[in-house]
Write a structure and sequence with these properties.
Blueprint: E1 7-11, H1 19-28, E2 32-36, H2 42-53, E3 60-65, E4 70-71, E5 79-80, E6 86-89, E7 114-117, E8 122-130, E9 133-140, E10 143-144, E11 149-151, H3 164-175, E12 180-183, H4 189-199, E13 205-210, H5 213-217, H6 219-223, E14 228-232, H7 233-240, H8 245-259, E15 263-266, H9 281-293, E16 297-300, H10 302-305, H11 310-325, H12 341-357, E17 363-368, H13 372-378, E18 386-390, H14 393-398, E19 405-410, H15 423-437, E20 445-451, E21 463-468
Parallel strand pairs: 1-2, 1-16, 2-3, 3-12, 12-13, 13-14, 14-15, 15-16, 17-18, 17-20, 18-19
Antiparallel strand pairs: 4-11, 5-10, 6-9, 7-8, 7-11, 8-9, 20-21
Length: 469
């Protein structure tokens, strides 16, 4: 039976706040459970963690911090609009319509600013700013609804990346051993460092959501500071225009494969399955194309958080991935990566051996303190399953975002001053654990890698061996 290499991230919401639904999603292939912090508080974080951990200690937990999203007040009822219609955005409760959490938004906006409502249901342009009010003209749209988020492409209206609620949620996630935080509005290194300041010395991993033109311009610098990215196609579509998204997605996936950092492709992957038991052909092709381009993970949003068919949506992603992956051939990648030169060289050598031996090699077993060697090898899309022994539960679960990692386990390492810190005894130590976990069998031939920093002999000896079990 083929094993899926692409990873699946699922947003958990009211539709999946049920133990049996969560169990079904995990059984069908959910690797990472995401909570959207725009709507969740610390009580919801605790509830979701309990639901997940009641079933699995392997599924990673990811908190999404929303950042300074502008949202309309909940005015009495939707307004029918058409091109040319006038809408006035005020700045206080005395106005019918105003930005509820940014009443002074008018101070950051100029005449000609484009304002997009929701996911693009309505587009307006600012025609006049007077007495703290923005006089806007509708460009397109039919229904102007209360409580919707506003997108302002190119407008620098926020001075901080994290809101007070974001900070509260993030600190709670760190305290309760969540694995990953995905941060919105990461547009440059300074915004990354703002999140890093809150993380401090905690081990939680940081995923940058790329959703505007500035983030794209600064992507190389951002990648030096984060642990991976999410291609937030919703924000990018509103910021850049929908026609630019396919090429941006392809370029980002290629770059992340070079950097050997995980990349998540997100937004409307199977949107129609929010209400329907099967996706459209276009959605199926969209998921397949992301996998063909080399994405590490695909993400379900409303489909698993609010939809009628969360378990079926996970299964559909898994089925598509298995079908597409059967056509993918391994290839050795070259490019600038975020890893020591020796680690890159070892991973490329391991890829060459794995590709060259084909069916004569059954698996690759890696001991890696940080998991970097495993991510570097996995990007080459080798056919053999990759199993990893790494130094902590968070590092182990973070590998749930890297395609091609078939299993990860926690290993405390070996003492360099003890007798077992030798080639033969070190291999026997790991292989006994591998047999216990059921990931290898007698008679198999495996490639065995042990990789630690070359300037420090610690955790495990550096090894590169083909072993017949």
């Amino acid at each position: 039976m083929l094993e899926r290499k692409t990873k699946i991230v699922c947003t958990i919401g009211p539709a999946s706040w049920d133990q049996e639904v969560i169990r079904g999603m995990i059984e069908k292939g959910m690797n990472v459970a995401r909570v959207n912090g725009a709507f969740a508080d610390t009580n919801e974080l605790d509830m979701v963690k309990k639901l997940i951990r009641n079933v699995s200690d392997d599924v990673a937990l990811m908190l999404d911090v929303k950042g300074p999203e502008v949202r309309l007040n909940k005015f009495p009822e939707p307004i029918e609009v058409s091109p040319g219609h006038s809408i006035i955005l005020g700045n206080s409760e005395s106005d019918l319509i105003y930005p509820a959490n940014y009443p002074d938004l008018y101070k950051s906006v100029s005449v000609g600013q484009k304002i997009i409502v929701g996911d693009g249901e309505v587009e307006m342009v600012v025609k006049k700013i007077e007495n703290g009010q923005m006089n806007c003209e509708v460009v397109y749209g039919e229904i102007f609804a209360p409580g919707k988020a506003l997108s302002l492409p190119g407008c620098d209206y926020a001075s901080e990346v994290l809101t007070e609620k974001d900070i509260e949620n993030l600190k709670h996630a760190i305290k309760t051993d969540w694995d990953i935080v995905s941060a919105s509005f990461i547009s440059d290194v300074s915004s990354v460092r703002e999140v890093r300041d809150v993380i401090g010395s905690a081990e939680i991993k940081l995923i940058a959501k790329i959703e505007d033109e500035e983030g794209l311009r600064n992507i190389d610098d951002i990648l030096q500071e984060v642990d991976g990215i999410m291609i937030a196609r919703g924000g990018l579509g509103l910021e850049l225009g929908l026609e630019k998204i396919p090429l941006v997605q392809k370029e980002l996936i290629t770059k992340l494969n070079e950097f050997a950092l995980p990349v998540i492709t997100a937004t409307q992957m199977l949107e129609s399955m929010t209400n329907n038991p099967r996706p459209t052909r276009a959605e199926t092709t969209d998921v397949a194309n992301a996998i063909l381009q080399g994405t590490d993970a695909v993400m379900l949003s409303g489909e698993s958080a609010m939809g009628k068919y969360p378990v079926q949506a996970v299964k559909m992603i898994s089925d598509i991935a298995l079908e597409v992956e059967s056509t993918l051939e391994p290839k050795v990648l070259w490019g600038s990566i975020k890893a020591p030169l020796t680690t890159e060289a070892i991973s490329k050598a391991a890829a060459e051996v794995s590709i060259g031996m084909k069916e004569d090699l059954d698996a690759v077993v890696i001991v890696s303190k940080t998991g970097t060697t495993a991510r570097l090898l996995a990007r080459h899309n080798i056919k053999q399953p990759i199993f990893v022994f790494t130094s902590s539960d968070i590092k182990r679960r973070f590998l749930n975002l890297t395609k091609g990692i078939s299993g990860a386990f926690t290993f405390e390492g070996l003492d360099v001053d003890k007798a077992d810190y030798s080639r033969d005894k070190a291999i026997k130590t790991i292989l006994s654990k591998a047999f216990k976990e059921g990931i290898v069998k007698k008679g198999q031939k495996i490639l065995f890698l042990g990789k630690t920093p070359v300037d420090k002999q610690e955790f495990f000896p550096n090894l590169f061996e083909i072993v017949r079990l």
